[in-house]
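Dataset card, provenance and construction

Sequences and ligand SMILES were collected as paired inputs. For each pair, a complete structure of the chain with the small molecule in place was predicted and serialized as structure tokens. The example below shows a pair involving S-adenosylmethionine. Curators did not alter the output after generation; any descriptive sentences attached to a record were derived from the structure itself.
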Amino acid sequence: MDFVKLNEKVWDKNVETGYVWTQPVSSQEVMKAKNGEWNIVMTPTKAVPKEWFPERMEGKDVLCLASGGGQQGPIMAALGANVTVFDNSQEQLNQDIMVAKRDGLKIKTVQGDMRDLSVFEDASFDLIIHPWSNGYIDNVLPVWEEAYRVLRSGGVLISGFANPIEYIFDLKNLNEGKFVVRHKIPYSDLTSISEEELKELVLDQGEGIIFDHTLEDQIGGQIKAGFLIGGFYEDIGGSALDEYINSSIATKAMKL
Ligand SMILES: C[S@@+](CC[C@H](N)C(=O)[O-])C[C@H]1O[C@@H](n2cnc3c(N)ncnc32)[C@H](O)[C@@H]1O
């Protein structure tokens, strides 16, 4: 199955149905950002600490990686950064294009798969913003390697991703607030559940094909690619587990 193509269609459709991660920022938020009042998220609720960003954003080359939807890109552009938004879904990118036109911002958009950033030259960005999205690919290691390559020395990669604990549970039961341990990590919609379940739980409900990676691949993978981890926090994941444990993570990784 071509899961990248399928997930592209799912996200195009999500824009049509107004799913939360496709809803762009308002003109008022852009205006506030221009006046220095802003925040962005990598995980469901917590704002990324301001000290994770360069002190001055004007003129910085920023790549918003798998980050379409008109959310992080327009805020970075309102701060004066040169923003490129890269995403697999053209409809998600169209949200950024719409905000840019509406609010007089300059944003470049590129459609592609986050595992292959060969359209970008080595050392061409100062900052990469990578909100919760690597659950849509089967292998996160190429993303960390590519991010390292396209960042300049002194550059920063800010990422959000899932704590795999959520995926050890049977999804149908979890959605009903029941905890039934079932799956091994790494998890894959393509191999961890039956075809019937894939159709019912994943495709019919418009979730797309999800993978869940080990923390070794998520955090160890960034370190292996050459990064130094300089920031870490947790946030809710948006499931029944929230009552017991935060299941999303954000990291700040630095290329020295
Ligand atoms: C949860 S949304 C994250 C973007 C959103 N701006 C946010 O604030 O969280 C996940 C994004 O990942 C994108 N995506 C999924 N698979 C991808 C892939 N293989 N390469 C690049 N982007 C991908 C989707 O199109 C979607 O825009």
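Derived descriptions for this record:
The chain has one domain: 3-163+212-254.
The first strand starts at residue 61 and ends at 65.
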